Model the fold of this input.
Amino acid sequence: MAFPDVVTREQWLEARKRLLDQEKRATRERDALNAERRRLPMVLVDKDYQFNGPEGQVSLAGLFGDSRQLIIQHVMFGPDWEAACPGCTAGIDEIAAGLLAHLESRDTNFVLVSRAPLDKLEKYRAARGWTIPWYSSHGSDFNYDFQATVDKDRQPLIYNYREEPDMLGEDSSTEVPGLSCFLRDGDQVFHTYSTWARGTDIIGSSYSMLDITALGRQENWEEPKGRAPRVHGADPTFTD
Done:
């Protein structure tokens, strides 16, 4: 195994300071990227999507609960599968109840959606000990319209906003992982963002999830201005 070079403390400190400069540049670039993400336009969702949940059928607007924003994790679980994707499973295992509470404090709800029937989702959720709300989109166009399910018989094969005509090999899954964000204004629901592939790698904390939403962390230091309806105690001194 190749280990890092061994140096003196003074040499290490010099190298660490050089790296710190790079880290700060990356942080500022990430802040700028998040601001551009919040400046994205949004699209009115005018189709009546219905989902099956433990308490019956619910609309897309109903998935928001009392929140203004909604993050949906597209979990790979096809109708004929007996279990969810291992990668999706590992990611959901890492989501703690505290994370959901932090999102809710920023007016944002988080749910799981898969195309498998509800009884399979509930059985799997119970076996894993998950408490995150999980809804079935089985029988609706939701997964296809938001490109969480790819099917060349229904539409061109597109993944991560690029045409991928050869993506479905003999053993390839038609279900793909990703996250989609929505914003509610009164009775209207808007699609603001979706991310796929490596775009899901950084998701793991409430801040990283809020960074992909239209309202962001809702802190005063964020751009564009005017999206922080409440002050949450962030100190701009620590934004870099």
In short: The first strand starts at residue 43 and ends at 44. Residues 12-238 form a domain with the Glutaredoxin fold (CATH 3.40.30.10). Residues 231-238 have pLDDT under 50 and may be disordered. The beta strands are 43-44, 50-53, 56-59, 69-74, 108-114, 134-136, 158-159, 162-163, 178-185, 188-196.
